[in-house]
Amino acid sequence: MNNSTKIIVIGSLLGTLGIAGLAKAISTNQPQLPIAIMPQHHSSTQMTINKDVEVNENREKLDAANDADTEVNDDKVPTSLGQVGEYGESVYDMAKANDWTKATANLNLLGNAAKSLHTKINVQNKTELAQLDSKIATLTKAVTAKNRISAMRDANQVTLIAVNIIKEFEPKVPVEVTLLDYYGRELEIWSATGNTSHLKTTASEIRRTWNAVRPSILARGETIQLQKFDALFASVEAAKSSEDYARLATPILDEVDNLEKVFKY
User: Which of 8, 94, 96, 117 sees the fewest Cβ atoms within 10 Å?
Assistant: First the structure.
């Protein structure tokens, strides 16, 4: 070992062991020197890594909290109210698929969300909350009985009541867009039962709702969406049989999903 290397090693040992420890280390065999140095170096490095990980985790938690706050501030609709509409639609989808296990699970979530509305929001018309509770009770009976059409109809009515409450909060997505989703499901329900009277009424409501929201879409320059919906609704008005309406229900529901994105971003 040359003099320069000795000076470096002695300096490192002196900082680590002190004068007494250095004397003891020098009296031992040379191969032990790295052993005295490396554990101290590893421990210091590990402490630095742990500290960095802790700082990064705290920063991620803070960023997540800030993101959540921003998301809440951007959305005027209370979380529990939004969940009522979402879970109502999920129950509808599961009943339609005859998946009663998932329908029941979503029904339980719907009930919990509805209960929280009584304490977390201040709606102008308390009657709507009473209607919601009553409709969920009816829906529960339909799901328990595994009555597909009744469950679909009641679940869709839950989403309609949610829309009527949501409009009080002036959401970013116009309530007319959400209503188009509701009417698309109505087409599925009544075409399955062959009720052409209800189908014609639903077609008229679709046209009225579309006329109300169309100017907002035009103002955003969404000409492609306008053309698609104009064509779809013209087809709905021209429909004659329940089979015609059934074929149009899914395209309408798909396009409503695209239309929601126009107002969310």
Answer: 8
